[in-house]
Amino acid sequence: MSTLLYRLGKSAFAHPFRFIGAWVILLAVIGGSLALNTPRMSSEFTINDVPAQDVIDQLSADLPEAAGGQGAIVFEAPDDTTFYDDPQAAAALGQAAADVYDNDEVVNPAELAASADPEAAQAQAVEQVAAVQQALAARASGVELEQPLPLVVGEGAQAQPVPGMVVSADGSVAMLQFQFTQQTFDLPQGTIEDVLHAAEQPTEDAGINVLPGGSLQELPEVVGLGEVIGLVVAAVVLILTLGSLVAAGLPLLTAIVGVGTGVGGAYALAHFYQLNSMSLVLGLMLGLAVGIDYALFIVNRQRRLVMRQGLSAHEAAGRAVGTAGSAVFFAGTTVVIALLALLVIGISLLSSMAIIAAATVAISVLVALTLLPALLGLVGERVVSAKARETYSRKVVDGDDHGVARGWAGFVTKNRFVVAIGVVAIAAVAAIPALDMRMGLPSGENYNEGSVQRESYEVTSRAFGEGSNGPLLVVVASADENPVDPAAIGAVTEDISGNDDVASAEVAGMSEDGRTVIMSVVPTSGPTDPETDTLVHELRDASDGYEQDFGVTLGITGQTAMGIDIAEKMADVMPVYLAIVLVLSLIVLTLVFRSLLVPLKATAGFLLSILATLGLTTAVFQWGWVNQIFGLDSTGPVMAMLPILVTGIAYGLAMDYQVFLVSSMRESWVHGHRGRDSVIDGFSHSSRVVVAAAIIMVSVFSGFIFNGDPMIKQIGFALAVAIAIDAFLVRMTLVPALMAMFGDRAWRLPRWLDRLLPDLDVEGEKLLESLGEKPAAKS
């Protein structure tokens, strides 16, 4: 491997325009595809083989027009008026609803009910009009309304209720709830924009404020000010580490190319499939972080070879790609393997996210091994300035080449038992909140103050109660071939309405054969509250009793129920995935380090990192500790997929630092240093670049904490914390302490196992031997 990469690096350096041209052409093709085809983006989360999705699948067969995604639009009345007192505003609402229902992709509940039973539908409409008129008459006489009312437009015999439209008790807010014919992410391009335009146009002249519900809102920006600041910090760290603007610019440039190719390629192909916005952000996060770090490792190695051994830039680039490039290849492979292990879970959403992220990381590795040496070929000897050479020579003469690193390693190894116990204690305390972790999907309440999502959530909660932000779709189905008995429907509706956690329950439609009835059930609590979770399970548990008493079964679906099911599914598969990653860690690290103790220590350290990360994430986002720092003023559940995603990603990135740090200790041991001395010597040669790489990763991930999407916030925070804990607390502190404890025993391996394991030559020792040199200590 190292010899092959050495040749590749020298070839790219000698013929830079061939390699650069190939990447430019690839980017041009991707750019052209994006210009010609509009990608299909979505923030929808669905997972197969969960109860909520099973109900949707059944509805698609029995009542396809009601199996689509839910939508809601909130209307605020002009100041100093209400929809009850302003006939013009009420008429505008009625026209807005009619225009929305005119869209071919929106289900008209009045038509649906009329097709099943016209007489019953007309009778219900008459009853609704009478009830509303009676309530409004009471209001006119001074009686305050306590419950929202359906919107009625027209007068006398022409009066008709507006299907799906309700007005708050004080008349200041109206809400139109409806369903699409398909799930939101399957709708034709532009459908949501057309629906919002249909709602806004009739209400514009009446001064009515229109707020789209959560499923109708635009995706938050992927890259904002926070992400840019993160990149600026990364650039500063690169300049300080490499000591040159030219050298520092190369990792940034290659990372951008890697992201442009990986994420851009996924984006360009998105007109063939639905690309979830979280997949895009995950690929962007990882592509930037690993792209910068991998290039940093190689450029740093080349510069050190030039300064320490006096090699030409050409030869140094070849050797850097052959040695540090081998470690980059292995490190990138571990990240890709950890991500692709998500495919074993069998969840399609996770699989698509994993594939896009893994492909972006793989491309970043390829860019570092091909485009970077080509760019180094253009830079030539300027990669190390005369001033940098002079400064380095002076430090060597003064014995100050690795002073800080040697001092830290000496302190840690001397006090190894106290340090090890202290690190474990800190990680254990940080992990405590994870015992109370509640998983789910964030709602509009968890968006930043002032955002459209937050405003829509708060207006809806104030006017109709928090549960109206996440109504449940309850499907009442006949247990046999006969139509559902109307008496049974009434009894079930009354029973559900009597639940203390239910604000309202009403029939919303029926299939033509009468065997399937859909109901809209509004909880009293919000979409992410534990009480709503309990309600969903109570309704599902009641299905057996309804089947015995009324001959019907209940199925619960909708966005809220889907979020609950996703959280439970993730909790079930998390132990399986964690076991896969830990076993994978032991196998891979045994191959790399040819040791049993080192993989066990590395895996235990990773377990500490991930538990502490989940604990701190729970404390900030669920408990609300210091969350104001990150622009939050509300709490909510931990994103359902975050534990699995962070486990897979953090494992791969943690192994990057493990490889670059511990392999240097092993190399020092191979070359004659023993016990504590090998730990100090190896640490001093590799710690500086590992610290720089970790700071860069933390900076890039931290930039996403200030994104408007609460799910992106959580992922950015968790990954930044995971890298900080693993790099600085575990790899830079716990690992040298444990290595000093075990001494030379850390590198013992049974002879039979030593013969079975292949020699990966991660550090390129065979390459250096083929060049007629003894392997030098890693820099």
TrEMBL record:
Keyword flag GTP-binding: no
Gene3D superfamilies with a match to the protein in the record: Multidrug efflux transporter AcrB transmembrane domain
Protein name according to UniProt: MMPL family transporter
Keyword Membrane: yes
Keyword entries, A-Z: Cell membrane, Membrane, Transmembrane, Transmembrane helix
Annotated InterPro entries: Acrflvin-R (IPR001036), MMPL_dom (IPR004869), Mycobact_MmpL (IPR050545), SSD (IPR000731)
Occurrences of domain SSD (ranges): 228-378, 572-741
Native species: Aeromicrobium piscarium
Compartmental location: Cell membrane
PROSITE patterns: SSD
Gene Ontology cellular component annotations, sorted alphabetically: plasma membrane
